[in-house]
Amino acid sequence: LTILSILLVNFHSSVWLIFFLPFLPYFAEKIIYKIFNNKELKILNKIIIENRNLKYLVITFSICLFSGFLSPLGLNPYTYIFKIMKGITKEFIIELLPTKLILTFPINIFIIIFIFAILIKKIKLKLTDFFLITGFIIFGKLAVRNVFIAMIFISYPISRILSNIINIYDKKNIFEKIRKTLEKNLLPNILIFVFILSITTNNYKNIKYQEYIEENLYPVELVKFMYRNLDIKNTRLCAEFDINSYFEFSGIKTCFDSRTEVFCKEFSNVTILEDWYNFNYENPNTVMDFIKKYNVTHIALYQTNALSEYLVNCKKIYSDNSFVLYEIENK
Q1: Which helix (H) or strand (E) holds 2?
Q2: 0.70 exceeded by the pTM?
Q3: Considering only CA atoms, which of 229, 222, 236 is closest in space to residue 303?
């Protein structure tokens, strides 16, 4: 776990603190156990509070917590998740937006199993499982990027609950017979493996031989036009948030891109992303102030963006079905 924590804080520090969430149910259980005078008991004859020895868990937790200092980012791993949710980026970055119903479908399945387990008298739940499932269900519904993390951590206690349900209601031991059959015979296992491998291989081939970029999503032709007709070195481009990365990939510098750590005031004490959000979502009349403030020479927009109506002394020099490029004539 310590090695995993060190790797996570260096490769994906923005979600590093999430690593510690699965520890919390065990600490909470210990506190509740102490409150009830060190007695193992059942809440409503349903939820079991256990007395666990957390000595090694606390040591591991402490070591992992201090591993954040093994990152070159200083204190950022400890504060990143709070800063990112405090700023404006949660308003338009897809992975930070509230989770839509279709994305929470797997979690909703877990919720149904969880509720079913609570209603069945014969099934007993561990308090740690109750906290873990409840906490990560709420966590998964808060933001898009949390869904798959929640599914990973919920899957273990849910599997245990399903196992208990099967043991109670599978009177003829059908699942046990299936398990023993799979253990004794290699053929079913080989068939399952081949089936999964064929699906994976087919999906890989579809991606491997995909030699094009969807031009309605990315400004492919616009980039070609800019290289043919503009002095790229002296071009200062302002573009839509979602396509800035493609310009950067193509070697064209933009005023900002999706690296919030660089362009948000919560991290770098600059306001360019906030200024862009202001004219793009709240007050379009300030677009020319932005252009003047950041010395913008060209601005690229989606065809559907009504912001073009607020551009003054700007000449349209390129247009296709998806994108339009304006040149600032007199700033």
Answers
A1: helix 2-11
A2: no
A3: 222
DSSP string, 161-216: HHHHHHHHH-TT-HHHHHHHHHHH-HHHHHHHHHHHHHHHHHHHHHHHT-----TT
The dihedrals phi and psi of 293, each to the nearest 5 degrees, come to -65, -40
| Consecutive H or E run containing 301 | strand 298-302
The pLDDT tens digits for 74-111 are 787 888 777 777 777 777 777 777 777 666 677 777 77
CB 84 within 8 A of CB 260: yes
Residue pLDDT, tens place only, 18-76: 888 888 888 988 888 887 765 555 555 677 787 788 888 888 888 888 888 888 877 87
Which of 69, 91, 86, 87 is CA-nearest to residue 78? 69
329: left (phi over 0), alpha (psi -120 to 50) or beta: alpha
Alpha carbon dihedral 224, 227, 232, 238, in 10-degree steps, equals -20
Quickly count: other Cβ atoms within 10 Å of residue 283's Cβ. Answer: 12
Take residue 25 and report the two structure tokens written for it. Answer: 């149910």
DSSP code of residue 331: -
